Amino acid sequence: MEITPTTSRAERSPLGSGSCSVSLPVPYYDAGGITIYHGDSRQIMPMLGRFDLLMADPPYGIGADKAMHKASGNVVGHGHRRVAKRTYEESDWDAKPLEAWVMEMARSLCQKQIIFGGNYYDLPPCKGPLVWDKEVNGNFADGEMAWNNLGIPLRIKRHLWNGMARKGAEPRHHPTQKPLEVIQWAIQLAGDVETILDPWAGSGTTGHAAKNLGKRCVMIEREERYCEIAAMRLAQDVLQFSPLNNSDQKHFCAVRQERYGPQICGFRTDRRVRECCF
Ligand SMILES: C[S@@+](CC[C@H](N)C(=O)[O-])C[C@H]1O[C@@H](n2cnc3c(N)ncnc32)[C@H](O)[C@@H]1O
User: Fold this and answer.
1) With 80 as the cut, is the pLDDT of residue 266 above it?
2) 238 CB contacts (<8 Å, ≥6 apart)?
3) Which domains does the chain have, with CATH numbers?
4) Whose CA is nearest to atom 5 of ligand 1?
């Protein structure tokens, strides 16, 4: 299925204005069939075409971003095992759930739909939710659920994700990041899909999973710092990604340029990226 620009939904959205001519912004990242738009999905979605699958993890409206920011940076453990937890900057994207029309717009663009945190939204009955069992023991929730319209029985994926104990020691860059393996599993359960939309991309796990599975994917994220992380994850190829300081980033870009040449760089050519990539 083709991803084709259209403006047909712009007039329906409370953010759209009937007469203005809007066009898609230059992607923040666009390479290998994976595109990231930095912006508000309420404004960008009306300009997109149709997709086979909505693979979404929207804000739940439970203040998870603030809670993670508050808990982050603390030192945990004892003696030589003392380590500082990752620091998450303050943000407010999880202050309230999406407006109903936004969820409806996202769903209307995609035939198949998988929505993590769908239990926070008013959605039609779901035959079998996808359950991610985090294999935790303690006070935290045992897992998370994804509402879907796939019409399949309930499926469970067990994948350890308990603070700093994470299967495969997967690096974590976003306060509500989903494991790559879990998102890949969910996409595969959707069966025959070629194009994927994730309008609330965070650190870009959906795009990363789509790339691994050879699918095309469009992601939208309003926070530039997350766009940057998502782009780095996608561009790293075989390099192990961890949060980059300036000199790491320069080294990483030099390696990438040497390997592929600057033309494959999918980054938007803004000041920060141009400094190290071109
Ligand atoms: C639950 S997180 C997604 C985490 C992602 N699944 C991952 O693995 O990293 C939701 C994301 O939606 C973004 N967001 C919230 N409102 C948005 C909007 N109107 N447009 C685009 N992105 C938005 C937030 O900045 C946040 O990064």
Assistant:
1) no
2) none
3) 29-76+84-223 (3.40.50.150)
4) 202
